[in-house]
Amino acid sequence: MPTLKGKVALVTGGSRGIGAGIVSRLAREGANVAFTYVSSKEKAEELKNELEKLEVSVLPIKADTGNQEQIDVAVKEVANAFGSIDILVNSSGLFITGQIDAADDNITQFRKQWDVNVHGAVYAVRSVLPYMGSGGRIINIGSTGGARTPYAGIGDYAATKAALGAYTRSWARDLGSRNITVNIIQPGLIDTDMNPADGPFSATMLQAVALGHYGEPEDIAGTVAFLAGNDAKYITGATLNVDGGQTT
Known about the structure:
Helix 1 packs across helix 7, helix 3 (68-82) packs parallel to helix 4 (107-128) and helix 4 (107-128) packs parallel to helix 5 (155-175). The chain is of the alpha/beta class and 248 residues long. Strands 3-2-1-4-5-6-7 form a 7-stranded parallel beta sheet, with helices on both faces. The protein contains 7 helices and 7 strands. Helix 4 (107-128) links the parallel strand 4 (87-90) and strand 5. The chain is globular and about 50 Å long. It has a single domain (8-242), classed as Rossmann fold (3-Layer(aba) Sandwich).
Protein backbone atom coordinates (compact mmCIF):
# COMPACT_ATOMS: atom_id res chain seq x y z
CA MET A 1 0.00 0.00 0.00
CA PRO A 2 1.37 3.48 -0.86
CA THR A 3 2.75 5.07 2.30
CA LEU A 4 2.14 8.71 1.28
CA LYS A 5 -1.27 8.44 -0.34
CA GLY A 6 -3.08 11.79 -0.30
CA LYS A 7 -0.02 13.79 0.75
CA VAL A 8 1.19 16.79 -1.25
CA ALA A 9 4.90 17.18 -1.94
CA LEU A 10 6.93 19.97 -3.51
CA VAL A 11 10.39 19.10 -4.83
CA THR A 12 12.68 21.87 -6.06
CA GLY A 13 14.91 20.93 -8.98
CA GLY A 14 12.87 17.85 -9.78
CA SER A 15 13.17 17.39 -13.54
CA ARG A 16 16.39 15.37 -13.69
CA GLY A 17 19.02 13.48 -11.72
CA ILE A 18 18.44 12.98 -8.01
CA GLY A 19 15.48 15.37 -8.04
CA ALA A 20 13.65 13.37 -10.72
CA GLY A 21 14.30 10.19 -8.76
CA ILE A 22 12.75 11.78 -5.68
CA VAL A 23 9.69 13.00 -7.60
CA SER A 24 9.18 9.52 -9.07
CA ARG A 25 9.48 7.75 -5.72
CA LEU A 26 7.09 10.11 -3.92
CA ALA A 27 4.55 9.64 -6.71
CA ARG A 28 4.92 5.86 -6.48
CA GLU A 29 4.23 6.18 -2.76
CA GLY A 30 0.93 7.85 -3.61
CA ALA A 31 1.77 11.53 -3.10
CA ASN A 32 0.59 14.28 -5.40
CA VAL A 33 3.82 15.94 -6.47
CA ALA A 34 4.75 19.39 -7.71
CA PHE A 35 8.30 20.09 -8.80
CA THR A 36 10.28 23.02 -10.13
CA TYR A 37 12.66 23.16 -13.06
CA VAL A 38 14.63 25.91 -14.77
CA SER A 39 15.46 24.83 -18.31
CA SER A 40 14.55 21.15 -18.70
CA LYS A 41 10.96 21.69 -19.86
CA GLU A 42 10.91 18.64 -22.11
CA LYS A 43 12.18 16.36 -19.36
CA ALA A 44 9.71 17.90 -16.92
CA GLU A 45 6.78 17.16 -19.23
CA GLU A 46 8.01 13.62 -19.91
CA LEU A 47 8.22 12.98 -16.16
CA LYS A 48 4.75 14.41 -15.61
CA ASN A 49 3.21 12.24 -18.34
CA GLU A 50 4.94 9.12 -17.05
CA LEU A 51 3.91 9.58 -13.43
CA GLU A 52 0.30 10.51 -14.10
CA LYS A 53 -0.15 6.89 -15.16
CA LEU A 54 0.05 6.17 -11.41
CA GLU A 55 -3.19 8.11 -10.94
CA VAL A 56 -1.58 10.88 -8.94
CA SER A 57 -1.47 14.58 -9.77
CA VAL A 58 1.85 15.93 -11.03
CA LEU A 59 2.53 19.64 -11.45
CA PRO A 60 5.77 20.88 -13.06
CA ILE A 61 6.50 24.57 -12.51
CA LYS A 62 9.20 26.63 -14.19
CA ALA A 63 10.97 28.55 -11.40
CA ASP A 64 14.53 29.52 -10.53
CA THR A 65 15.19 28.36 -6.98
CA GLY A 66 17.66 31.19 -6.48
CA ASN A 67 14.97 33.78 -7.16
CA GLN A 68 12.76 34.48 -4.16
CA GLU A 69 9.91 35.98 -6.17
CA GLN A 70 9.74 32.97 -8.49
CA ILE A 71 9.75 30.55 -5.55
CA ASP A 72 6.97 32.49 -3.83
CA VAL A 73 4.86 32.31 -7.00
CA ALA A 74 5.58 28.58 -7.42
CA VAL A 75 4.59 27.78 -3.83
CA LYS A 76 1.34 29.73 -4.17
CA GLU A 77 0.58 27.81 -7.37
CA VAL A 78 1.06 24.51 -5.53
CA ALA A 79 -1.10 25.66 -2.62
CA ASN A 80 -3.84 26.84 -4.97
CA ALA A 81 -3.78 23.53 -6.83
CA PHE A 82 -3.72 21.20 -3.82
CA GLY A 83 -4.78 23.27 -0.79
CA SER A 84 -1.77 22.49 1.39
CA ILE A 85 1.83 21.26 1.25
CA ASP A 86 2.83 18.34 3.48
CA ILE A 87 6.35 17.63 2.23
CA LEU A 88 9.06 19.98 0.98
CA VAL A 89 12.23 18.56 -0.55
CA ASN A 90 14.95 21.10 -1.28
CA SER A 91 16.77 19.29 -4.06
CA SER A 92 17.96 22.13 -6.32
CA GLY A 93 21.69 22.52 -6.44
CA LEU A 94 24.62 23.86 -8.44
CA PHE A 95 28.15 22.45 -8.40
CA ILE A 96 30.71 25.08 -9.35
CA THR A 97 34.39 24.55 -8.55
CA GLY A 98 37.42 26.80 -8.39
CA GLN A 99 40.39 27.31 -6.11
CA ILE A 100 40.62 30.40 -3.95
CA ASP A 101 43.87 31.49 -5.64
CA ALA A 102 42.58 31.12 -9.21
CA ALA A 103 42.72 34.49 -10.94
CA ASP A 104 39.96 33.71 -13.44
CA ASP A 105 37.30 32.51 -11.03
CA ASN A 106 33.84 33.78 -11.87
CA ILE A 107 32.55 35.36 -8.67
CA THR A 108 29.11 35.78 -10.22
CA GLN A 109 28.84 32.00 -10.62
CA PHE A 110 29.85 31.43 -7.02
CA ARG A 111 27.19 33.89 -5.87
CA LYS A 112 24.60 32.12 -8.00
CA GLN A 113 25.62 28.81 -6.43
CA TRP A 114 25.06 30.26 -2.98
CA ASP A 115 21.71 31.71 -4.04
CA VAL A 116 20.48 28.32 -5.30
CA ASN A 117 22.06 25.96 -2.77
CA VAL A 118 21.42 28.01 0.37
CA HIS A 119 19.16 31.01 -0.15
CA GLY A 120 16.87 28.96 -2.37
CA ALA A 121 16.21 26.52 0.45
CA VAL A 122 15.54 29.41 2.82
CA TYR A 123 13.11 30.97 0.34
CA ALA A 124 11.29 27.67 -0.15
CA VAL A 125 10.92 26.92 3.55
CA ARG A 126 9.65 30.39 4.39
CA SER A 127 7.19 30.32 1.50
CA VAL A 128 5.89 26.82 2.28
CA LEU A 129 5.40 27.13 6.04
CA PRO A 130 2.06 29.02 5.88
CA TYR A 131 0.65 26.02 3.99
CA MET A 132 2.26 23.27 6.08
CA GLY A 133 0.51 21.88 9.14
CA SER A 134 1.37 19.51 11.97
CA GLY A 135 3.22 16.44 10.73
CA GLY A 136 4.89 18.33 7.90
CA ARG A 137 8.24 17.20 6.55
CA ILE A 138 11.12 19.33 5.30
CA ILE A 139 13.95 17.35 3.72
CA ASN A 140 17.11 19.05 2.48
CA ILE A 141 19.47 17.42 0.00
CA GLY A 142 22.99 18.29 1.01
CA SER A 143 26.26 16.58 0.13
CA THR A 144 29.09 14.72 1.81
CA GLY A 145 31.05 17.73 0.63
CA GLY A 146 29.45 19.61 3.51
CA ALA A 147 31.41 17.44 5.93
CA ARG A 148 34.65 16.76 4.04
CA THR A 149 36.63 18.31 1.20
CA PRO A 150 38.62 15.47 -0.42
CA TYR A 151 40.20 17.57 -3.16
CA ALA A 152 41.05 21.18 -3.98
CA GLY A 153 38.67 23.64 -5.54
CA ILE A 154 35.35 22.73 -3.91
CA GLY A 155 35.48 25.18 -1.02
CA ASP A 156 32.60 27.35 -2.21
CA TYR A 157 30.38 24.35 -2.95
CA ALA A 158 31.28 22.65 0.32
CA ALA A 159 30.50 25.84 2.23
CA THR A 160 26.99 25.98 0.77
CA LYS A 161 26.28 22.40 1.82
CA ALA A 162 27.72 22.94 5.31
CA ALA A 163 25.46 25.98 5.66
CA LEU A 164 22.46 23.89 4.62
CA GLY A 165 23.31 21.42 7.36
CA ALA A 166 23.45 24.20 9.94
CA TYR A 167 20.10 25.54 8.77
CA THR A 168 18.61 22.05 9.00
CA ARG A 169 19.55 21.69 12.67
CA SER A 170 18.33 25.20 13.47
CA TRP A 171 15.02 24.77 11.64
CA ALA A 172 14.41 21.51 13.49
CA ARG A 173 14.50 23.55 16.71
CA ASP A 174 12.42 26.37 15.26
CA LEU A 175 9.66 24.08 13.99
CA GLY A 176 9.61 21.33 16.60
CA SER A 177 6.72 22.93 18.48
CA ARG A 178 4.70 22.79 15.25
CA ASN A 179 5.42 19.06 14.89
CA ILE A 180 7.28 19.66 11.62
CA THR A 181 10.45 17.63 11.16
CA VAL A 182 13.52 18.91 9.31
CA ASN A 183 16.33 16.60 8.19
CA ILE A 184 19.17 16.58 5.69
CA ILE A 185 20.38 13.79 3.42
CA GLN A 186 24.01 13.95 2.33
CA PRO A 187 24.51 11.95 -0.87
CA GLY A 188 27.91 10.60 -1.81
CA LEU A 189 28.78 9.54 -5.34
CA ILE A 190 25.47 9.16 -7.19
CA ASP A 191 25.34 8.17 -10.85
CA THR A 192 23.75 11.14 -12.64
CA ASP A 193 24.44 13.25 -15.72
CA MET A 194 26.32 15.67 -13.48
CA ASN A 195 28.56 12.98 -11.98
CA PRO A 196 28.41 9.78 -14.10
CA ALA A 197 29.75 6.50 -12.77
CA ASP A 198 31.89 6.18 -15.90
CA GLY A 199 33.30 9.70 -15.69
CA PRO A 200 37.03 10.46 -16.08
CA PHE A 201 37.62 10.81 -12.33
CA SER A 202 35.23 8.14 -11.04
CA ALA A 203 37.89 5.47 -10.40
CA THR A 204 39.89 7.88 -8.26
CA MET A 205 36.87 9.07 -6.29
CA LEU A 206 35.67 5.51 -5.67
CA GLN A 207 38.80 4.77 -3.69
CA ALA A 208 37.18 6.53 -0.73
CA VAL A 209 33.89 4.57 -0.96
CA ALA A 210 33.68 1.52 1.30
CA LEU A 211 31.17 -0.26 -0.95
CA GLY A 212 33.31 0.43 -4.01
CA HIS A 213 30.59 1.63 -6.37
CA TYR A 214 28.36 4.59 -7.16
CA GLY A 215 24.88 4.90 -5.75
CA GLU A 216 21.74 5.55 -7.80
CA PRO A 217 19.17 8.35 -7.54
CA GLU A 218 16.74 5.77 -6.12
CA ASP A 219 19.03 5.35 -3.11
CA ILE A 220 18.46 9.00 -2.22
CA ALA A 221 14.79 8.86 -3.19
CA GLY A 222 14.18 5.88 -0.92
CA THR A 223 15.68 7.75 2.01
CA VAL A 224 13.48 10.76 1.23
CA ALA A 225 10.41 8.51 1.18
CA PHE A 226 11.38 7.10 4.57
CA LEU A 227 11.85 10.56 6.12
CA ALA A 228 8.56 11.71 4.60
CA GLY A 229 6.63 8.78 6.04
CA ASN A 230 5.18 7.95 9.43
CA ASP A 231 8.08 5.71 10.48
CA ALA A 232 10.30 8.80 10.68
CA LYS A 233 7.97 10.94 12.76
CA TYR A 234 10.45 11.08 15.68
CA ILE A 235 13.49 11.95 13.56
CA THR A 236 14.39 15.61 13.25
CA GLY A 237 17.59 17.62 12.99
CA ALA A 238 19.33 14.51 11.69
CA THR A 239 22.01 14.14 9.03
CA LEU A 240 21.76 10.94 7.00
CA ASN A 241 24.82 10.10 4.91
CA VAL A 242 23.80 8.01 1.90
CA ASP A 243 27.29 7.56 0.54
CA GLY A 244 28.35 3.92 0.49
CA GLY A 245 30.66 4.54 3.43
CA GLN A 246 32.52 7.46 1.85
CA THR A 247 32.54 9.46 5.08
CA THR A 248 33.47 6.58 7.43
